[in-house]
Design goal:
By secondary structure, this protein is of the alpha+beta class. It is 34% helix and 16% strand. The chain is flat and about 120 Å long.
Length: 429
């Protein structure tokens, strides 16, 4: 086997007119070896096998089977060739199939990777792409969903933390992201998420159509098995995850949202593209104006009532009747309205004006405060606690029960001293 250096040397000498015999004498190699490398029969650095390849006998059969069925499993085909006498391992079989390129290419089943493609034009203000980022491991212990919206032309993006990826939470996230971007593009690009696109037909869900009409935009679903059509938002999610979330020091969803908003302005918008920052490119995009009020989607959140008759919601706490302590309540809030209603098992028990998210405010109704005071005072007692240092040995009744449990095993032995005396004096026989 020649080394790559020797292969280069004999090729150079051959081009200079040397004969194969002269090259063989100069390099100390056999003439047949030199001829084989010069003709391309052998490759430098690859040792020729001393024994014939056992797979050669089975290659015509494997090639024919793949021609009949390009999607036949390798495990199935391996069982067939083993029955025909192939004695090597499954790993060797699959390696030979890959090295010899025996499985034919199926264009219909192949992904977009490796295919010829063209760059997709994104005119300014034409498209915004949406996708969910799921965060399983959060500092506050609960799974979080982040809706990310990206302007396809400039690459400017914003995100919205949510506790769910349901339809109402999607609408809330869309409105929050759009108001952070300062407007909306003419068309929305989404993947085939069930809250927007009907999985069976590939058409827009009837429940989502009013949302698109409210903002005056068109909705474009991504074609199936074409993930690169939505690559702008996927790249933004990857950038957000690695540059911000991986090292973010946050302890609650409200803190995470505030930190993400700051980082998007000072970090993500400062990226340079073609001599301009992302923020500068976004300012030049002609976005559509937003409606004065969001789409009136109704959001439902379920919370557990704490011992102080308070319910936590988005960084604030709201009072409920004290009789609900330890139970669950539904908080219903319509996007764009200032108040939220609290329901226990269906009926509405109270209504509160929502405080700004993350404000750490405690909102109590006067009647809830009075009712909670009555409950606390009703359980209050003026009796002195028991004395901890008194002497209280077991009573006679307890001792009687203990004796019955122990039985004769606890009785004191009776010793007759007169018997002991007679033994020592030798009188006892």
């Amino acid at each position: 086997m020649l080394t790559p250096e020797e292969d280069v040397e004999i090729t150079s000498l051959r081009k200079r007119g040397w004969s194969i015999s002269a090259i063989a004498r100069h390099t100390g190699r056999d003439r047949k070896t030199v001829r084989a490398y010069l003709s391309g029969e052998r490759v430098a650095g690859v040792r020729a096998s001393a024994v014939p390849d056992s797979f050669d006998r089975y290659e015509p059969y494997v090639r024919q089977r793949f021609g009949d069925d390009p999607h036949v499993w390798a495990t199935t085909l391996f069982d067939e060739v083993v029955a025909l006498g192939f004695g090597r391992s499954y790993q060797t079989f699959t390696r030979k199939v890959r090295e010899r390129g025996l499985r034919p290419h199926c264009e219909r089943c192949a992904s977009s990777a490796g295919r010829a493609h063209v760059d997709i034009e994104h005119p300014p203000g034409e498209e915004i792409q949406w996708d969910w980022l799921e965060l399983d491991d959060t500092p506050w212990g609960d799974k979080a969903y982040v809706l990310v919206g990206v302007l396809s032309c400039s690459g400017k993006f914003r995100g919205w933390f949510s506790g769910s990826d349901g339809g109402a939470h999607l609408v809330v996230g869309i409105d929050e992201v759009l108001r952070r971007l300062g407007g909306t593009a003419r068309r929305w690009r989404v993947d085939r998420m069930a809250t927007v696109i009907n999985p069976g037909t590939g058409k827009i869900q009837r429940s989502f159509a009013p949302v698109a009409k409210h903002y005056g935009v068109g909705v474009d679903p991504c074609p199936p098995r074409h993930p690169n059509r939505k690559g702008v938002v996927e790249k933004a999610i990857h950038y957000l995850t690695q540059r911000w979330w991986r090292t973010a020091r946050v302890g609650s969803p409200a803190e995470a949202q505030a930190a993400l908003d700051r980082w998007c302005v000072v970090g993500a918008d400062a990226r340079v593209r073609g001599g301009s920052t992302v923020g500068e490119l976004a300012e030049a995009e002609p976005l559509l104006g937003l409606p004065p009020v969001p789409f009136p989607a109704e959001v439902v959140e379920v919370r557990t009532v704490a011992a102080n008759a308070l319910v936590s919601l988005w960084g604030n706490r709201y009072s409920v009747p004290p009789g609900l302590v330890g139970g669950s309540v539904e908080i219903r809030w319509r996007l764009g309205e200032a108040n939220a209603s609290f329901h226990a098992g269906g009926p509405k028990v109270c209504e509160h004006r929502l405080a700004p998210r993350g404000a750490h405010q405690t909102v109590r109704l006067a009647e809830h405060t009075a009712a909670l005071e009555n409950v606390v005072l009703g359980a209050f007692t003026s009796d002195r606690p028991c004395k901890p240092k008194t002497n209280r040995p077991p009573t006679d009744a307890a001792l009687t029960l203990a004796a019955a449990l122990i039985g004769d095993a606890a009785a004191d032995p009776v010793v007759d001293l007169d018997i002991y005396r007679r033994l020592t004096e030798g009188d006892l026989r």
